[in-house]
Amino acid sequence: MNPFTFVIRLPLLPVRGVIRLATLIQGEAEKEMVNPVKIRRELEQVERARAAGQISDEQAAEFQRAAFAEFAEARRRPAAASAAEG
Length: 86
Prior knowledge:
mainly alpha
């Protein structure tokens, strides 16, 4: 990179840094969404709340359906993205 190009691109460096940071955060968030350990912990919390009478059986079943649907959708998203790129 010659000095002239560097001077022209210098004001854009913070923007590029923010974009890179946002991309990294998005990647980590997607990994966390499909983390089976996280899903299992949430389901265990729901089961404890149901057993303690804090939520009804219907609410627990709805949360379980939503958690599994979210997990399945998150698992499909990376596969669909890689198929679109290839």
